């Protein structure tokens, strides 16, 4: 039911246009694991950048490690290009508190000193707890804190959004 | 009556202490190996440090000397941003007559978060795990003849790295099996991970027949023992075994059980040769093999740091 409210494929089309406007000739896309990584891979192909695409994980810099533990270890960072001096466009499915972005920026700087870092997301659901903002959001909406919004990718590569109640 | 819970696991089945590989489910061993893979890539970064243990204090308690193992734990903890305190207990409180538990109580009062324990008595890390504060984690860095779980895990990481999977392997462990905590940990890990053939190779005094109870094939002939093996794990021959009635001499031992190129030719062409170090050249292993193309002894050391980072960070993320 809630999936109908957010047409992920339509939002992907919006995101693609937004990302295209933010791209410079040397921008590299880096997707935040896991949803953002799927988006970045598809964007990189659809926009035919001709450059490699990166994946970045927040796992090793999370501020809630003490409560959550390590979690999934499949979330490894892979940045197959030089970070020093790079123009990086981070891509994620959802931004809320901004804590994932803080962790990811720390992770990125472990690999070098980029020239600039921007962020594009599919959905900005509000609830920021840190001074972080996205340069582009395909949709802005307000969701109750108890609802978790996450992107899913079907076997055909198409995206859907799922809303889960958390307790 | 409820079955007594494994002291290494919390009520959710998560790892809170690493005391022995025996009794740990395959899923936890795999989680540790997968996590170690993530940490291995930390070496490729400009900043070779991640903040998972920032603000935590790791105490290395070495009641028995081992510079190498202590150093790898120290590097692992520092790469995780922990504060590391090395206590060479062999030379301090224990020699003044303080009991083990009093030592632990004092160190706990110094706000320790993790104890890495090496002790000559089997079971000492269990005793510490039972009596330390609930938030404190204990890692066994070798206790008596009992277990050396991080060595076992780094051996498994090494095998998986080169052989990709465990389910069709023949692994020969050669040398002083009966006194070796490394061998015991390796055998438990190999069994849990599904290795179909594990061989224990060595003289009758060091490889007794009752090892068969652990599910291993016992071989007293070296060539037969390494025949068609995918992995050969050589054990260090401890000098003190040489003086007793267990062995005639280092030279005699090398003739019968030393790993030479000629012996290695009986193993699979792509066999790997492992050793927990430090190696005794010319006693259990020939230099040409130790430095040869089949040897993965130095990669083992590198993998050992990543495996210890994995163990410490998994423990630190789980509550009692």
Per-chain topology:
The complex is a heterodimer of chains A (167) and B (320).
Chain A: H1 2-5, H2 8-22, E1 27-32, H3 35-46, E2 54-56, H4 65-68, E3 87-95, H5 99-109, E4 116-124, E5 136-140, E6 147-153, E7 159-165
Parallel strand pairs in A: 1-2, 1-3, 3-4, 4-5
Antiparallel strand pairs in A: 6-7
Chain B: H1 26-40, E1 57-62, H2 67-79, E2 83-87, H3 100-109, E3 114-119, H4 124-131, E4 137-143, H5 149-163, E5 170-174, H6 181-192, E6 197-201, E7 217-219, H7 222-226, E8 231-234, H8 239-243, H9 250-257, H10 261-264, E9 272-274, H11 287-290, H12 297-316
Parallel strand pairs in B: 1-2, 1-3, 3-4, 5-6, 5-8, 6-7, 8-9
Helix pairs in contact in B: 1-5, 1-12, 2-12, 5-6, 5-12
> Biggest β-sheet of chain B: count, sense, barrel?
5 strands, parallel
- The level of helicity of chain B is 25-40%
Unreliable stretches of chain A (pLDDT < 50, length at least 5) are none
Radius of gyration of chain B: 19 Å
Major β-sheet profile of chain A: 5 strands, parallel
Taking all Cα atoms into account, the compactness measure Rg of chain A is: 15 Å
Order of SSEs of chain B, N→C?
A: HEHEHEHEHEHEEHEHHHEHH
SSE pattern of chain A:
HHEHEHEHEEEE
Strand content of chain A: 25-35%
Query: How large is the count of helical segments of chain A?
Result: 5
Mean pLDDT of chain A: 91
Number of E strands of chain B: 9
pLDDT below 50 for ≥5 consecutive residues: which ranges of chain B?
none
Strand order, biggest sheet of chain A? Answer: 2-1-3-4-5
**What class do helices, strands and sheet pairing of chain B give?**
alpha/beta
> Could you give the distance between the termini of chain B?
22 Å
Mean pLDDT of chain B: 92
Overall number of strands of chain A: 7
The level of helicity of chain A is: 25-40%
Q: Report the structural category of chain A.
A: alpha/beta
Q: Count of helices of chain B?
A: 12
């Amino acid at each position: 039911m809630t999936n109908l409210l957010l047409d992920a494929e339509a939002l992907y089309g919006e995101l693609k246009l937004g990302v295209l406007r933010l791209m410079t000739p040397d921008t590299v896309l880096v997707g935040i694991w896991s949803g953002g990584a799927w988006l970045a891979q598809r964007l990189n192909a659809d926009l035919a950048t001709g450059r490699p695409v990166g994946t970045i994980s927040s796992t090793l810099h999370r501020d809630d490690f003490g409560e959550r533990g390590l979690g999934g270890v499949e979330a490894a960072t892979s940045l197959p290009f030089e970070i020093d001096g790079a123009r990086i466009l981070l891509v994620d499915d959802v931004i809320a508190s901004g804590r994932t972005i803080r962790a990811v920026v720390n992770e990125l700087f472990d690999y070098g000193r980029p020239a600039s870092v921007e962020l594009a997301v599919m959905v900005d659901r509000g609830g920021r707890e840190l001074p972080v903002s996205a340069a582009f959001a395909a949709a802005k909406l307000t969701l109750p804190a108890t609802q978790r919004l996450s992107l899913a990718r079907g076997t055909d590569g198409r995206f859907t959004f799922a809303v889960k109640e958390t307790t | 009556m409820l079955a007594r819970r494994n002291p290494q696991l919390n009520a959710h089945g998560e790892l809170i202490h690493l005391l022995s590989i025996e009794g740990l489910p395959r899923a936890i061993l795999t989680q540790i190996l997968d996590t170690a893979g993530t940490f291995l890539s930390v070496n490729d970064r400009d900043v070779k440090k991640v903040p998972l243990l920032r603000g935590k204090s790791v105490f290395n308690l070495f009641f028995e000397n081992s510079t190498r193992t202590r150093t790898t734990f120290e590097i692992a903890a520092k790469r995780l941003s922990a504060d590391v305190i090395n206590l060479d207990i062999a030379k301090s409180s224990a020699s003044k007559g303080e009991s083990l538990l009093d030592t632990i109580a004092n160190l706990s009062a110094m706000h320790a978060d993790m104890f890495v324990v090496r002790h000559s008595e089997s079971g000492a890390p269990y005793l510490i795990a039972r009596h330390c504060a609930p938030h404190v984690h204990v890692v066994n860095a070798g206790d008596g003849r009992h277990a050396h779980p991080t060595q076992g895990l780094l051996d498994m990481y090494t095998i998986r790295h080169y052989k990709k999977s465990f389910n069709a392997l023949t692994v020969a462990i050669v040398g002083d099996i009966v006194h070796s905590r490394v061998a015991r940990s390796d055998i438990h890990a190999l069994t849990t991970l599904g290795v179909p053939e594990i061989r224990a190779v060595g003289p009758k005094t060091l490889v007794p027949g009752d090892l068969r109870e652990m599910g291993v094939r016992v071989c007293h002939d070296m060539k037969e023992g390494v025949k068609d093996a995918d992995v050969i794990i050589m054990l260090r021959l401890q000098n003190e075994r040489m003086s007793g009635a267990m062995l005639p001499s280092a030279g005699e031992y090398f003739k019968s059980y030393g790993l030479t190129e000629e012996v290695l030719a009986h193993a699979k062409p792509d066999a790997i040769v492992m050793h927990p170090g430090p190696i005794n050249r010319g006693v259990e292993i020939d230099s040409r093999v130790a430095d040869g193309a089949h040897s993965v002894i130095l990669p083992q050391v590198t993998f050992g740091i990543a495996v210890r980072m994995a163990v410490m960070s998994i423990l630190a993320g789980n509550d009692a």
